[in-house]
Amino acid sequence: LIVSFFITILPVSVLAVLAMVLFAGISGCLHLDGLADSGDGLLSSRPRERALEIMRDSHTGAMGMIAVVFVLLGKYAALSSLAGSAFLAAIFLIPMAGRTAILLSMALLPYARTGNGLGKLFYSKDSRIVAALALVFCIIITAFVSIKYVLFVVAAILLPVVFFSFWCFRKLGGATGDTLGAVCELTELAVAVSIVIVSRVQ
Question: What's the alpha-carbon Rg for the chain, to the nearest Å?
Answer without folding.
Answer: 17
